[in-house]
Amino acid sequence: MRRSIATVSLSGTLEEKLRAAARAGFDGVEIFENDLIGSALAPRDVRDLAESLGLTIDLYQPFRDFEGVDEARLEHNLRRAEAKFALMVELGVDVMLVCSSVAADSAGDDALAAAQLRRLAETAAPYGVRIAYEALAWGRWVDDYRHAWRLVREADHPGLGVCLDSFHILSRGHDPSAIRDIPGERIFFLQLADAPLMPMDVLHWSRHHRCFPGQGAFDLTGFTGHVLAAGYEGPLSLEVFNDVFRAADPERTAADALRSLAVLEDETARARDREVQVGAGETRVAEPGDDRGEPGRAGPGRGEAPASGPAPAALTRLPAPTRAQGYAFVEIAAPEHAVPGVRAALASLGFRHTRDHRSKPVQLWCGGGARVLLNATDPQLGHTWSGDAAVTALGVDVADADAAMRRAERLLAPPLPRRRDPAEADLRAVAAPDGTSIFFCAQDPDERQDWLSDFTVPVAGGDDAARVALGGIDHVGLFQPFDHFDEASLFYRSVLGLEPDDGIELAAPDGMVRSRAMSRDGAAPRIALNASLLGRGPYEDVRGGPQHVAFACDDVFAVARAMRTHGFEPLRIPDNYYADLACRTDLEPLAVERMREYGILYDRVGEGEFRHFYTPMLDGRLFLEVVQRTGGYAGYGSANSPFRMAAQRAEASR
């Protein structure tokens, strides 16, 4: 299917938006009227520019407050529309979006509205223009797509159809399954947008908080499946009003947008594959890649199809997901002045420097099931290394590294060139939105991809692991630029197969911090994404915000004691925290006192318990964490995050 994007979804001038859409790989655009009005280019020049870029102009929008008016106002509206039709001829676009009226002086008369929409379609016909009528979620009289379809059906003109917008339908909680009852040829246009669930006025929600598919909470896989099953054959188009997108780099936003559509198409096709209805009450599981079976009648589930009608449109398929299974390693890059502190912190937690890389200044540190690569003098492996000690690379275990790389490249993840000796492992890597390198490490590595075989230089005493008390890497916390927070979430979801939680907002000493955890069924590799809501303060300066690596263990007190024995104190937590802990929990006083002694924090959800402590900041933005999970605890101790951030601020001031 063709892919399109509304110019309102991108920042910049109309010309910049068109170029960004073309470079990302879109087939067409919707021209938002304000973008054309503000452009120095004449409509014919816009058409020529789009054609030179390989773009079609698929929709002109919006035309507002047309129907439900008296005769004098109708004549005025028709003259207004004719001027737009003539303009559309110059632009080379043949579909105009007409929004349901929000005018206070309009009438809620369905017969009148249908008759006037027919007049509009009749007026548009000589210009070769068709009218796509859309029910706004805040429309005065028509706020439901089923109502819009009734008016279109009553008007009964071949040049009048509906525009279906996922936000207007799903934000109101309307059941999208009735889309299957609309003939595909009468669905003139499809607009897609996701959104987080937010308890606010739907108009404000729409104008400021839409996002690309896969970045919000809507079931766009099921929604798109219904539209395609109805027989729609037009473009999949994104119309996203978002304050961040309209201020961000348009080329980066366009690439993120295309990635979201690729994932949506793939997930919709796979949902259709999983269950194909071949008869009443009879199902068969489709073979992978089989899109040809006769669609059957289904309920309002994800990607189900009606019993009759045209064959579903072909969808672009991505290589099958190769989901990450856990962490092979985390790489920390440190400038020379920070190396002793990072080494001391790792050693105090039971890590041992076991081997060095054969050709690069990278050390392998092992602690139980966790591996840390310390890049001491050649840290700039990622795109945006800041100069402080930082997490610069994640190695993730996958079943098939080559397949994972093929999928990542199809999702527009930038591949990272690597400097390596021909005898070294041919690891494949891409850049995450924040510049972190993501390495795909085969779980059953062959000689070509066995990265551990590159660490061939033994270190004296490096095999002494008698005091190691850690398990593996529990999670990694990565601070994101605010503008790229949703982009990062979609990246890790689509490339690594991680699913986001609902997210929370935390009150930090310097402002609000948004946090969203990504995991696979609650298990590793877990990644906690964080961003400053205001984009100011120490969490959003030129170095970037704080990052951390959390290690799992079975006895957090034993690890804390060992760390102290090695002369490394945990982050200092105020006594007030433990006084409050004693009040709000049924923990024994002795247990609370033990936690206070070692700076250990506590959280409990149901039967699950979480005990954890932090090291001090190691170099301005990097710290380490040790966690102990019991009773099925699946969170990250987020209730304690404000106190951790306050303690870090106090430590910095000291």
What does this protein structure show overall?
This protein has 654 residues and is an alpha/beta fold. The protein folds into two domains: 3-284, TIM Barrel, CATH 3.20.20.150; 326-653, 2,3-Dihydroxybiphenyl 1,2-Dioxygenase, domain 1 (Roll). Helix content is 30%, strand content 24%. It has 17 helices and 27 strands. The strands form four sheets. Strands 19, 20, 21, 22, 23, 24, 25, 26 and 27 form a nine-stranded mixed β-sheet that branches. Helix 1 (14-24) crosses helix 10 (250-274), helix 3 (43-52) crosses helix 4 (71-91) and helix 4 packs parallel to helix 5 (110-124). The protein starts with a strand and ends with a helix. Residues 282-309 and 379-385 have low confidence and may be disordered.
Annotation keywords:
TIM Barrel; 2,3-Dihydroxybiphenyl 1,2-Dioxygenase, domain 1; 2 domains; nine-stranded mixed β-sheet; 27 strands
Write the layout of secondary structure elements.
Layout: E1 3-6, H1 14-24, E2 28-32, H2 33-37, H3 43-52, E3 56-63, H4 71-91, E4 95-99, H5 110-124, E5 130-134, H6 145-155, E6 160-165, H7 166-170, E7 187-192, H8 202-209, H9 220-229, E8 236-238, H10 250-274, E9 276-279, E10 282-284, E11 326-333, H11 339-348, E12 352-356, E13 362-367, E14 370-375, E15 390-398, H12 401-410, E16 428-431, E17 437-442, E18 457-458, E19 470-479, H13 485-496, E20 499-500, E21 504-508, E22 511-520, E23 523-532, E24 547-553, H14 556-565, H15 575-584, H16 589-598, E25 601-605, E26 608-614, E27 622-630, H17 641-653
Parallel strand pairs: 1-2, 1-8, 2-3, 3-4, 4-5, 5-6, 6-7, 7-8, 11-14, 15-17, 19-23, 24-27
Antiparallel strand pairs: 9-10, 11-15, 12-13, 12-18, 13-14, 16-17, 19-24, 20-22, 21-22, 22-23, 25-26, 26-27
